[in-house]
Amino acid sequence: MSSEEKIFFTYNDIHNTIQKVAQQIKQDGYDPDVIVAIGTGGFIPARIIKTYINKPILTVGLKLYDENNIPKKSPEKIQWIDEVEKKLKGKKVLLVDEVDDSRVTLEYCLRELMSDAPAEIAVAVLHNKNKEKRGSIPAEITRYWVGEELEDKWICYPWDAIDINSHGT
What we know:
The protein is an alpha/beta fold. The protein contains 4 helices and 8 strands; from the N terminus they run E-H-E-H-E-E-H-E-H-E-E-E.
């Protein structure tokens, strides 16, 4: 894949985008009890959003792509929240991920979290790829914030760089 088919982001880009998302969340009056990060891509965005929202972070690990970056039919659960029902029942949850690509991972995660009876779940993503989605956001989810809309290109995040000094050059 050539560099023209990729979009590169720096840590500063990410931080600024998350700040924008956090402002949207606050302007909408959403005050979650807990942040849930989808790993691995949602870990760093969730930690930065905590700077603005200051709520505890829980993590879930899902794997949609194989080792060759080819999507699987459905996500595989790698890690889930211990005593999830105790931690989510009746709570307002903010689900955070880096990118809404096919929407399959978001849908899977939202449906799993909804089974634990939270009061409300909202979604925040850094980037949404403007393309047809294979998954859908359940109708019960009425809050969805996006930092930036993007065309359908491969996104290169700084936390995936082997050599951060040559990232994007």
